[in-house]
Amino acid sequence: MAGTQRYIRYILIAFLCLIIVYFISSTSDPRDQLQSATDYIKSHSGSLTAHRDDEDEAPLPGLDDERPPIPLETGARTLPSALEDTDTTPNKPNELPPAVASGERMNATFVTLARNSDVWEIAESIRQVEDRFNRKYNYDWVFLNDNEFDEQFKRVTTALVSGKTKYGTIPKDHWSYPEWIDQDKAAKVRDEMREKKVIYGDSVSYRHMCRYESGFFFRHPLMLDYEWYWRVEPSIKLFCDINYDTFKFMAENKKKYSFVISLYEYVETIPTLWDSTKRWMEKHPDQVAEGNSMKFVSDDGGKTYNHCHFWSNFEIGNLNWLRGQAYMDYFDQLDKDGGFFYERWGDAPVHSVAAALMLKKEEIHFFNDISYYHVPFTHCPTGDDFRMDHKCHCNPSENFDWNGYSCTKRFFEVNDMELPKGWQQEQH
Ligand SMILES: Nc1nc2c(ncn2[C@@H]2O[C@H](COP(=O)(O)OP(=O)(O)OP(=O)(O)O)[C@@H](O)[C@H]2O)c(=O)[nH]1
Ligand SMILES: [Mg+2]
What we know:
Blueprint: H1 2-26, H2 30-43, H3 45-49, H4 81-84, E1 108-113, H5 119-137, E2 140-145, H6 151-160, E3 165-169, H7 183-195, H8 204-215, E4 228-231, E5 237-238, H9 246-252, E6 257-259, E7 262-264, H10 273-283, H11 294-297, E8 308-310, E9 315-318, H12 319-323, H13 325-337, H14 339-342, H15 347-358, E10 364-366, E11 372-374, E12 377-379, H16 384-389, H17 408-414
Parallel strand pairs: 1-2, 1-4, 2-3, 6-10
Antiparallel strand pairs: 4-9, 5-11, 7-8, 11-12
Helix pairs in contact: 5-6, 8-15, 10-13
Bound molecules: guanosine-5'-triphosphate and magnesium ion.
GO molecular function: alpha-1,2-mannosyltransferase activity
Pfam families: Glyco_transf_15 (PF01793)
Region (Disordered): 45-100
């Protein structure tokens, strides 16, 4: 019995060896396969050209002439000239910027305020920022939360960011009612705003968020290590490549604050913001800059606010400016006056009014080349050539810049800047 089993095992091994020998000897050179594929296309060029009605009987460019097969070692990047001449795919190789940019880095970080439940929306934003910019620069990313970040949030975001990631919990007293706030009065305001259907008008957490972004994020211990920040919110999009270091640009050009979209604020959310601002100006006239952008925020030399503001869900700015005496005095005035809770002051008008009044106008920059979306507005750079050169995928008909509710044209006028060529055609 044992002898028979051994005999069968020998036969099986011999059979297996035969199969292996046959397999090795029958595998042909891959170059032969490539050659025969070319021959196959050639032999079918008649049927392909039959669909073209512009050139009767003309073969597809390149398919007619005798050409050597594509050498394997060149890979897909070097196309035979026959294919380069066509206007079909594959397109001519269009160089991507280098994987990592050379040169020194600035002392800068991305910063995001988020809840654990925002993880997938912020993941989307990070991927956009990394693909279009940060994969080349590897800047850090600070995440801040009024609760502890959970493991999933940390794992997902750490995997996506090319720089270091840091996770901070916000101290309680930066995310709660200051002692001087009458909470019953604040609750009544929220009820009224709910009735009037003011957006986020009945939300307590939204108010803490706006107050935090107005006066605290730049003082978080994790932020103290940095001089520059780029704020990123969940579910934003970037539509064009950014092939230079935006932080370095800010530093070299003496910029302190920047924006991509500007618009008018809902009046119901900030009825007395300007009164508070005027109180600060009266107390600290020395903190109001000469050559500021008052004209951007007021049409009557400072008597009233025209509600123009930079949309702060995107910001690249200087943290030392926000941590400086003037901005801190301004924030303290607003905080004491209580409008974060008795109204619904947003951090966007707060940062904007501060930038407009305490910075020289040349210190505020419009990043035309950072194409951006945050629901519901898009900034898509004006000019076809620019969009092609920077591999933009935004639809220019969705550009908000020249819309009647945008304040960007006013920014150009205040700064004597020439409007970009073609802006009229892209006015919607
Ligand atoms: N940790 C924390 N983050 C918050 C809270 N509320 C908002 N945020 C974050 O604060 C930023 C602004 O909040 P959003 O809800 O985006 O406010 P918005 O941009 O005015 O409104 P949307 O149109 O909803 O985007 C985002 O980065 C949010 O993730 C909160 O209660 N806790
Ligand atoms: Mg948002």
